[in-house]
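Researcher: First entry.
Model:
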Amino acid sequence: MSVAAVVSAIAIPQTLVSLDFVRTAGAARYVASRVMLARALAVQRSAAVALRFESDSRGFRFATFQDGNHNGVRSIDIDVNIDRQIEAPVRLPDQFPGVDFGLNVDGQSGHPIQLGGTTLLTFTPAGTATSGSLYLRGRNGVQYAVRVLGATGRTRMQRYDERQHAWIDTF
């Protein structure tokens, strides 16, 4: 019985670390897929589509909006319901416990939503996008980035490797 207790005491913390790593990677893949879906919707509907990121006391949430007056998705148009919401808002911790948007690399903190000073990640009907990075952080410090390249609208996912002090592409 005592051997089982010792083995469990050793295995459980490692299992929790692995679970956090898997959750954070899953959340990053989920965000990347939502970004790619927004791009596909913009091309399919021949209208600008954007993900809007907002923060409050509970953290960050994002929702998808479609341009309603052919001038791009704008916050002012969202606020007066010209650009309409086409998908419900999402909070990452609701689906991936312990994971949220966050940036803390090598002890340096930064804003986790970096879209050139805006809160909108917009895709045009041609498939181009707002350039930027979305940073996700797990409970044990695992860090991922979802990067969007503006000219092509392509998305890539990276993981921060603390040993190399560098962002590594993941597939």
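Researcher: Second entry.
Model:
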Amino acid sequence: MEIETTASPLRFHWSLSSAGDRLRGARSRAAMSGTPDLASHAEFCRQAEESGIESLLVAFGFHRPDPIALSGALGTLTQKIKFLIACRSGVTSPTYFVQQVNTIAALTGGRVAVNIVVGHSPHEHRYYGDFLPHDERYQRTDEFWTVCHALWRRDGPVSFEGRYYRVEEAKLNTPFCSADRQAPEIYIGGSSDLATELAVKHASCLLRPPDTPERLAPQVQHLQEHGVEMGLLVSLIARPTREEALAAARALIEQPGEAARDVHRDFRGRSDSVAFTSSYALAEENRSDWLTPTLWTGAVPYLGAPAMALVGSAEEVAAAILEYRRIGISQFLFMGWPDIDEMTFFGQEVLPRVREAEAPHLPGWERRQSG
């Protein structure tokens, strides 16, 4: 396989959403507990550090613990792992949010990044007093991040007046503390045109659900032309052999049953997220569950849009990751079942194969070999 030379190795992240709760996605959100199991989460963080994972997504939602508070607690129990904190505009003021993120950075040595999420469930948004429709949420988010970036630049008191936010002479005495950055790295989740526009304006990476490399390539190129990376949010079912991986995939959808399908039919009908609804559409409208020999949609009707998965042996999954790298995908955000076992196998069997294959295509490889 031909792999293009790039400046940096692939970067890998994992979702903390289901730590200690294997089939959380099969239940309705109303039935999920938002009380964190700190011991399970801390164990997951330590295993992520050992497995070569750079950061853990700490998601936002009424059915979850607060991502800022949870990241702060876990930051005191870990040494290397970063926390990719999900944030929705309309929940708090941009000034206060920057203050929160900067405090986490001060407590963890800068181990924090931010995942911009515009939201996918209008009924849940109303729990927080947010009644804006889909497109207006993007407009408000644009204003939110305009203020945040101005505060991180620290180029004087910030004044801003827009349609959704107004701040006057805003300043913070809590700077962003990091050895190599003046502000957190910003990711945006989504696959709509509005998400792409927002990423170009405010983020360094767009995180979106997977598709075939052929269909993703034009969007990757468009983002690269604007200096923005693309990453994929995709699940993993990797095993020593393909037969074992396929058996694990079949077993995964047998356990939740039809009740889980009903949960996600209802969720799809109430969601206005392009990323989520398009993933459900890919799963239900294709004649096959396989978009490629390794990209499987079979779990989506049972476990939700993030359950689109790379399935196969360690060699096959590594090859699929490298094929995405070939078209310019530079980062991956994974989840699995059970998460900690999948992550451990990834670190032991998949990641070394990826690193070995990409090494000759990184700048300076010949010099390192000759040295």
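Model: Note on the second entry: The mean pLDDT is 88.
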